Amino acid sequence: MDIKSFQLGPVGTNCYIITKNDKSIIIDPGHNDERLLDYIKKENLNIDKILLTHGHFDHIAGVDMVRDATGAKVYIHELDNEMLQNPNKNGSALMMGMGIKIREADEFVYDGEKIDFEGSDIEVIFTPGHSKGGVCYKIDDAGVIFCGDTLFLRSIGRTDLYGGSIEVLESSIRNKIYTLDKNYTLLSGHGDPTDIEGEKKYNGFFRA
């Protein structure tokens, strides 16, 4: 399994392309960046799905560009679907007057769902708090969790935007991430990778 990352857009959102065999999945294409399409074309990738960790503008802005170019279906938690076409809810209205809207998702994901990816399971972990419908995607075969803006290297996602709650986010991190029985690598929506044990020991917001 190969994982390629791109830093996109005005706030440096991490977008990931996961490839196994002849299929690929994109997580959080947050900006209309031609590098994504160039890479897809160069590597002759068959993009199967676009998985969204949540509905903020910096994670969704490039979705329609990739969807139209590849025919991939878009997946998001139902509670964040309302953000896709609402700039006030996805935060883009606050960012220099941008009004980002994308078409609705094709499918909803739910807590505990396992999405088959070429024989590997991508497990959905419902982690609200940064938004109402935030999720992480765990791949045991690769030992990684794509955690969006739930948890960062020594930091956490902000909770002052639509749908945010510091109490709910704390519960998600403590009860859904810190309780996992393996020290997964955490690939966040912004910044460098980290891991669960490091965050349990050193993250000053919610130490285990």
Number of strands: 14
Count of helix runs? 6
Shape call: globular
The biggest beta sheet reads: 6 strands, mixed
Protein architecture, described:
The protein is of the alpha/beta class. The protein has six helices and 14 strands. It has helices spanning 34-42, 57-60, 63-70, 87-90, 166-177, 196-202, and strands at residues 2-8, 13-20, 23-27, 47-51, 73-77, 107-109, 114-117, 120-126, 135-139, 144-148, 151-152, 155-156, 185-188, 194-195. The chain has a six-stranded mixed beta sheet, with helices on one face. Strands 7-8-9-10-13-14 form a six-stranded mixed beta sheet. It has a two-stranded antiparallel sheet with strand order 11-12. A hairpin with an 8-residue loop joins strand 8 and strand 9. The longest helix has 12 residues, at 166-177. The two termini are 31 Å apart. The model has no long low-confidence stretch (mean pLDDT 96).
